[in-house]
Design a protein that fits this description.
The protein is an alpha/beta fold. It folds into three domains: about 100 residues, 2-Layer Sandwich (Gyrase A, domain 2); about 130 residues, Four Helix Bundle (Hemerythrin (Met), subunit A), CATH 1.20.120.430; about 150 residues, Rossmann fold (3-Layer(aba) Sandwich), CATH 3.40.50. About 45% of the residues lie in helices and about 20% in strands. It is built from 15 helices and 13 strands. Strands 3-4-5-6-2-1-7 form a seven-stranded mixed sheet. A six-stranded mixed sheet has the order 9-10-8-11-12-13, with helices on both faces. It binds ligand FFO, guanosine-5'-triphosphate and magnesium ion. The site of magnesium ion has 5 residues, from helix 9.
Amino acid sequence: MSDIIAAIATGRAPCAIGILRLSGPGCAALTGRVFTPKQPFADAPDRRLVLGLLHDRQGRVIDECLGVVCRAPHSYTGEETVELQCHGSPAMLAAGLESLLAAGARQAGPGEFTRRAFLNGKLDLTQAEAVVDLIDAETADAAANAAGQLGGALKRAIEPVYDGLTDLCSHFHAVLDYPDEDIEDFGAAELSGALDRAGAALQELLATYEKGRHLRQGVRAVLLGKPNAGKSSLLNRLAGYDRVIVTDIAGTTRDTVEEPVRVGRVLLRLTDTAGIREAGDAIEALGVARSEQAAREAELALFVCDASQPLTDEDRRAIEAAKCAPRSLALCNKSDLPAAVSPDELPFDTVLTVSARTGAGLDALPALLEGWFLGENACDGSLLTNPRQFGALDRASRAIERAKTGLSLGVTPDAVLTDVEEAMAALGEVTGRTVREDITNRIFERFCVGK
Ligand SMILES: Nc1nc2c(c(=O)[nH]1)N(C=O)[C@@H](CNc1ccc(C(=O)N[C@@H](CCC(=O)O)C(=O)O)cc1)CN2
Ligand SMILES: Nc1nc2c(ncn2[C@@H]2O[C@H](COP(=O)(O)OP(=O)(O)OP(=O)(O)O)[C@@H](O)[C@H]2O)c(=O)[nH]1
Ligand SMILES: [Mg+2]
């Protein structure tokens, strides 16, 4: 039987409401020793807020707050749970927590509430991982996809594949039980059809990962150009505030600076770089080297030129660096000044004429980037976003491919079976059916305390 855990479930800054949370059999009675509504809290009606006084370890009243009991099994964790909705003073919440710990609760570890929900079958592992993704979501689309997975979207995509493979396994076991019969007698075509379906379903899911990754982690993007082109001005314009220093001195930015920037529905992890030029001193040389490194690591390069000046060799060097990224586009900046560069001089499929100073032309960027990186997805949880899940599904898919090849080459049924079982184990790691404890530990470590 599990013990009673307690934690502050809300943030560490003063705010309107702060929540203390407990889970474990008997937690209502335990809470009743420090939280006193009119009726004893242990007898409070299920899932109904009651008003009462919260006492610290010394018995002093430190808050007037609301408490609620959710009795097992109808709670988030599946156990008896209690929440105290207090005024949001971090100091008072800490004193309240201490009081609960003194009454016999234990400080909850990171993700321990959700771990209990997982262990009690309230959530599978895809849903538990969606909880962290939801908390970490940096865009509404990322939240929508995580909410879909919390609702079981990924689980529903994977379970039928797992069930299909379970059926296959029982066929193969039948084959193994009658070693004198030929595998053909067990419907080889049917077996390979089932493998094909499982493989195709996994491929479909794996193919969503690129967009899913962009949704969850954002797109690594870099601004490249010669000094004074207006890279830092563009970063500030996209960020919506003066994040980096802008001056008319060439070589203002000396090191790379990263800033998350939302462009429409796309989250860019945008890196501003030192202008690319023949370096004057050692620090500048390092800065330029870093700019070129950032370009190599980026998924999107934004080449910026000062379109009020003719192109130079420095521009051409920056163009070359930008072309190293999988996607690139050119921003012809300073459109508020008379133009000395025409867009078709630039060797990019996409050239936008913009002004960091006025913001002109930048409104074309959201639709463009959404098309490239998110596409027309519904954000309903159907996108695979998590590298761990991708890795395990990829292993499952490879194992199925091996089984298919084995079957077509006529290898022994037990060899094919080994591959199918490996695929099932990998799928089980995603849903949590067959996951090892060290893996679940690592997953729940990513959670915050109180979740
Ligand atoms: N105050 C508060 N807000 C919260 C949570 C919470 O635990 N407390 N949540 C969590 O961190 C999330 C909501 N998730 C929850 C999911 C299930 C249940 C629950 O009580 N489930 C029961 C009853 C279901 C029902 O009434 O339909 C069950 O599954 O049996 C509660 C919260 C977000 N907001
Ligand atoms: N007229 C005009 N000036 C701009 C525009 N964008 C930037 N500038 C000016 O150009 C100068 C250089 O801008 P920065 O943003 O510092 O240029 P940078 O590319 O970051 O330069 P380095 O950090 O030196 O590589 C500043 O004086 C800006 O005010 C623009 O759209 N129009
Ligand atoms: Mg700069």
